[in-house]
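Memo to structure team: turn this sequence into structure tokens by end of day. - J.P.
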Amino acid sequence: PSGITRSHAVSASAGLSKLFDFGTVIDGSFSQVRSDTDNIFLVINPQYQSDLVLNFRQPLLRNRGTNEASRRLRVARAQVDLSDALFRQKVIETVGAVQRAYWDLEFALKGVTVARESVGLAETQIGRLRRLVQEGISAPVEIVQVEAELERRRQNLLSTIELVTLTENTLKSLILSERANDEWNRPLVPTDSARVVPVTWTIDDAVKTAIENRPELAQLRTREEINNIDLTYFRGQTKPQVDLVASYGSTGLAGT
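Reply from structure team:
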């Protein structure tokens, strides 16, 4: 009578979709609507309307066998292997750097010992030569030559001590987490000595082991796999899109 009608509706829906490896897509949805109104011409009031839809899609050319989602998934799996190879390479480089720095420190400390012994021998020679000069056996000019050699050896000793400090700092920078660590103020004393171990591997065995375990080769193989995945996907994208589609739907209506 007033020319105005009012209606209320409440709806809910749920859906599920599944993408398979070969590009097959199956999805389904269900929706439910409850509505009521004061329109006197509506026979069913309140009414409940439900819809059920099932869809099936199978690509026949483009996206058949590989699609964007599967490509990303395969690339992500390959990148996990790539990250593992990069991590292994970083560990190998770090461990190798620590080992080299350790043996450089050991070598520098041995050099200091040798340089000190050399200085001691030069001082002993000067003392012996001075006695010979006092006895008139040797000329005084020979003392000057030996003193010059002694100063050269002392300078070499200072250089080897400086080398110890440099190699020690290099090793500390590799094994200590931060500069505020107390170990920076303490000397590092190597406890292992170098041992010569004979190599029993043949060239063929060494090359085979390197090919199987080198992280650089593993990275190249993984990158090649990723490139092949992309090549297959983008080559498939050049094909026309032809899909086989099937759909089923059902609608229900109920109410007072």
